[in-house]
TrEMBL record:
Protein name: DUF2779 domain-containing protein
Pfam families xrefs: DUF2779
InterPro entries: DUF2779
Domain DUF2779 residue range list: 94-231
Lineage of origin: Bacteria, Pseudomonadati, Balneolota, Balneolia, Balneolales
Domain of life: Bacteria
Length: 357
């Protein structure tokens, strides 16, 4: 096939959600564009997709293809089963996010290569009246100190005051807590039974089992702004682009425990869509007295994804950094993790507004 310049901007088969590894079957048939997938896959009445209580993977892919190829209106879609799920959640709602390092050469005695070492969590809490509080943002700041057990203690302290529903984003938090349960059993701190009981209440099968917001999005929510991704870093600018209410709230300065006076809704003048808030995070060293940009504490200009956070905390384990550099890294870590849980809050706020309307 001889491609013209405009063909490169057409939605193609590599943009289809959850089709990793399947593209070869299309290429073998000389199928390159989403438009070519529609014959044979379109339901007899495609509008019925939007009244399904929830979507299976094929239905979700169909919605994406129809919206990205112009066959359906290029607006967000929501399966009504989400509202039923929301009715089962208990206030106050807690949105948590973890950061962890998996080092090939462990920093701490008694650990194995690639053992999970959680070093940070953030928690935002939403109350029934809509009020939002950045409740906690904890990091183990002491170089060389194994953070794992204290991490669980601090998380327990944050969440044990009520029976509110706890939210995570994807499987990482569930995996980390199960790994910490094994570590606690091995190391036997005095409060081992309490910590294990706390963990077991939150992980899969527990009486307070965390709700996976990623799964909620997969089954119930789609915006064409997300394209083929359910990453929170794609969902966040999508809901900000779709929601006039979020635009109203976050065009005003937001302040939490570490992020101060940040305007997170800023439209791109060329596309009209929201600029990704992760791109608006402060550079490392911002607001830190005497920090010198020419002597970078870490290689990245800012910490805006999990891999950079892992590398930044790993850098803190070495003793060749001065206090100013350490403060700069810590401030950026706190801000990044705070945005992760604020992003979860924004998604839920948008769903609340849709439910009420």
């Amino acid at each position: 096939m001889q491609w013209r310049e405009k063909d490169f901007s057409r939605p193609h088969i590599f943009d289809v959600w959850n089709e990793q590894g399947m593209q070869k079957k299309y290429l073998d048939k000389e199928v390159y564009f989403m438009e070519e997938l529609i014959p044979g896959m379109l339901p007899a009445n495609p509008e019925l997709l939007y009244v399904q209580p929830e979507w299976d993977n094929d239905q979700r892919k169909t919605i994406q293809i129809m919206k990205q190829t112009g066959h359906h209106e290029a607006t967000e879609a929501l399966a009504p089963g989400l509202f039923h799920e929301m009715d089962s959640w208990t206030y106050p709602l807690h949105f948590i996010d973890f950061e962890a390092v998996l080092a090939a050469i462990p920093f701490h005695k008694g650990l194995y290569p690639y053992d999970y070492v959680p070093f940070q969590f953030s928690c935002h809490t939403m109350y029934e009246d809509g009020r939002v509080e950045h409740r906690a943002d904890w990091i183990e700041e002491t170089p060389g100190k194994l953070p794992s057990i204290m991490f669980v203690r601090k998380l327990k302290e944050c969440l044990e005051g009520d029976e509110g529903t706890v939210f995570r984003y994807h499987n990482f938090e569930n995996t980390v807590l199960n790994k910490m349960k094994d570590l606690i059993r091995e190391r036997e701190p005095e409060d081992a039974e309490e910590l294990i009981a706390f963990i077991e209440s939150l992980v899969k099968g527990g009486e307070r089992e965390m709700v996976d917001q990623y799964e909620m999005i997969k089954k119930y929510y789609y915006s064409p702004v997300m394209k083929n991704s359910i990453s929170i870093k794609k969902v966040l600018p999508a809901v900000l682009s779709e929601s006039p209410k979020l635009q109203e709230i976050y065009s005003q300065p937001y302040s939490g425990l570490y992020l101060k006076n940040k305007v997170f809704y800023q439209p791109n003048p060329e596309t009209g869509q929201a600029i990704n808030p992760y791109e608006l995070l402060n550079k490392v060293g911002y607001g830190i007295p005497d920090y010198d940009d020419s002597d970078k504490a870490i290689g990245e200009d800012s910490i805006s994804e999990g891999g950079a956070a892992m590398m930044a905390w790993s850098r803190l384990q070495f003793n060749d950094l001065d206090k100013t550099q350490r403060d700069a890294i810590l401030q950026s870590l706190y801000e990044y993790c705070e945005l992760d849980t604020l992003a979860m809050v924004m998604i839920h706020q948008h769903w609340n507004f849709l439910k009420k309307n």
